[in-house]
Design brief:
Elements lengths: L1 E6 L7 H10 L4 E6 L9 H8 L15 H8 L1 H8 L3 E6 L1 H9 L5 H8 L4 E5 L3 H5 L1 H12 L3 E2 L3 E4 L5 E5 L3 H12 L9 E6 L4 E2 L5 E2 L6 H12 L3 E6 L11 E4 L3 H11 L5 E4 L6 E3 L17 E3 L3 H7 L6 E8 L3 H12 L3 E6 L11 E7 L4 E8 H14 L17
Parallel strand pairs: 1-2, 1-3, 3-4, 4-5, 8-11, 8-13, 11-12, 13-16, 16-17
Antiparallel strand pairs: 6-7, 9-10, 14-15, 17-18, 18-19
Helix pairs in contact: 1-2, 1-9, 4-6, 5-8, 10-14
Length: 413
């Protein structure tokens, strides 16, 4: 497959060489397009040497070229647009993002963007203030609405001397986005997937709350994967430090009661419900209006919170799939099976959180996809990969399957 890497004029342009090499390791035929500004940071010769292809940086032939050469250059962007399987812009500067968003085509890269129907992936890189500026964020929203895949920058020390968001994402992260775009599946097209994520909080006083260690990473990975596979996604999220996936409808909540209301008010829209949030099971009976002072031992009376999954199952529509999550530390399979039968869900994603190196706060996890008849072990992998595996099992619930006599049976995938 052929992919085109667009390099724009930022200090991170040198990292595009590493990206080219990484893409080649996946047997991709990589071509490079550069803006004039990009050539101030890295030479076209570098990319030509890496790819073995001519690097394009202008809509026009070199000065002194004949009319035939100029004609060939004039339509070169159309040929590139029609023959590439994906356009990846890394780094994507604020200027290039603005041009893309507003349809300005004044060089080869911006003209190529308008001319291609291939998936487009942009990896922004810029000063933190430029990244946070309303204009940039508005342009990103415009591009996301056009199904441009955005790989957010990471946070750290920037070339300008400031610290914050704006560093080009890691090469591996960009490559994952490219591979996902190239192998895009629309098996969730026509589905509306409602996903809950994060850990709800129950206030003790104006500054303290009861909560849990959920980072929301699994729920957000599921939302991103479902959107990528063609679904309309409603993401109901308790507080996290994560950037919401592009093109998802984000509904922020804090407490369990707020999450319940948000879920039940949207449940009729969903064909698939995945409750990945870590919902607080208890809340204080009373909440202090003032900060509680340290005066010695204190007894706090708790009451159960709303059982959202049970309510969702009670209101299910015909054909609606409902999947819950369970975090356990002991007798994991027994407790998971008990929850599945009590709640009446179609499946439970069973998470053994006794392992410190995976699960909470980690980018990796291993789970068991539990139904009434099967216990399917999904081994340790990245949460991004695990999200796709979980969605494959969810889709499998719509298909006829072999009924196993014992629920303890494990199907090796």
């Amino acid at each position: 497959m052929k992919v085109t890497v667009g390099v724009s004029g930022g200090i991170a342009a040198y990292k595009a060489a590493e990206l080219v090499r990484a893409l080649q390791q996946h047997a991709l035929d990589v071509h490079v397009v550069m803006t004039d500004a990009a050539k101030q940071f890295i030479t076209p010769l570098t990319f030509a040497s890496l790819t073995g292809h001519k690097v394009i940086s202008s809509l026009w032939a070199s000065p002194g070229a004949g009319s035939e050469a100029n004609l060939a250059s004039a339509i070169e962007h159309i040929e590139e647009a029609q023959t590439t399987d994906a356009l990846i812009v890394a780094p994507a500067t604020a200027g290039v993002l603005a041009k893309f968003a507003h349809g300005i085509a004044d060089d080869f890269l911006t003209t190529l963007y308008l001319a291609t129907t291939a998936p487009v992936i942009v990896a922004p890189s810029m000063n933190v203030n430029m990244w946070q500026h309303t204009a940039t964020q508005t342009n990103l929203g415009t591009l996301a609405n056009r199904n441009v895949r955005i790989v957010p920058p990471s946070t750290g020390y920037l070339a300008c001397g400031m610290t914050g968001a704006g560093r080009l994402a890691d090469t591996d992260t960009i490559v994952e986005a490219v591979l996902a775009a190239l192998h895009h599946r629309n098996d969730l097209s026509g589905e509306t997937v409602l996903i809950t994520a994060g850990g709800t909080r129950e206030a003790l006083d104006p500054v303290r709350f009861l909560g849990n260690r959920s980072s929301g990473k699994m729920g957000y990975a599921l939302a991103e994967a479902a959107e990528r596979r063609g679904a309309r996604v409603i993401l109901i999220s308790a507080p996290t430090a994560l950037r919401p996936p592009a093109n998802c409808e984000l509904v922020p909540v804090i407490t369990t009661a707020e999450m319940r209301d948000a879920v039940l008010s949207r449940i009729d829209q969903a064909t698939i419900v995945i409750k990945a949030a870590a919902v607080a099971d208890y809340r204080p009976v009373t909440q202090s209006n003032q900060k509680l002072k340290r005066t010695g031992p204190r007894i706090i009376e708790l009451e159960p919170t709303e059982d959202i999954l049970t309510e969702v199952v009670a209101r299910r529509r015909v054909g609606q799939l409902i999947v819950g999550f369970a975090a356990e530390t002991e007798n994991v399979l027994d407790h998971g099976r008990d929850k599945l039968l009590r709640k009446g869900a179609d499946a439970i994603v069973l998470n053994d959180v006794s392992h410190e190196d995976i699960g909470f706060d980690s980018d990796r996890n291993a789970v068991t996809f539990l139904t009434r008849h099967t216990a399917i072990e999904l081994p340790e992998m990245s949460k991004r990969d695990l999200a796709d595996r979980i969605l494959e099992e969810v889709l499998g619930l719509r298909r006829p399957s072999l009924v196993v006599a014992e629920t303890e049976s494990v199907i090796e995938k």
